[in-house]
Amino acid sequence: xxxxxxxxxxxxxxxxxxxxxxxxxxxxxxxxxxxxxxxxxxxxxxxxxxxxxxxxxxxxxxxxxxxxxxxxxxxxxxxxxxxxxxxxxxxxxxxxxxxxxxxxxxxxxxxxxxxxxxxxxxxxxxxxxxxxxxxxxx
Length: 138
Prior knowledge:
Blueprint: H1 5-12, E1 15-20, H2 30-40, E2 43-50, H3 62-71, E3 81-85, H4 88-98, E4 103-107, H5 120-128, E5 133-136
Parallel strand pairs: 1-2, 1-4, 2-3, 4-5
């Protein structure tokens, strides 16, 4: 039996990983990720990443992330937050593989201190991810 494009789109993604460092620029991908999650009925996981030396907020970033999801018009998609520290690119790729992600949603400025010229982390993720990566330049 052939699947119609609509049924295929709905089954294409089961898990989407939104990778963020809690910066304002890292939230720029969230409206797109939430739209895809809604249309495909995928679970949207939040992966909060902290580079070496980054200070983690006392609440683990929960308040900031709740605001991000509210601003994206998708507070109902905000759920459990997973956190990783250290080698950010490697940690995102490893997490996506371990949790069988179907898509990683991130920005080019992930863990670069907001410097839009530093895209090494995003490039590493794109080259090594076990699934497609949706990456935007804020």
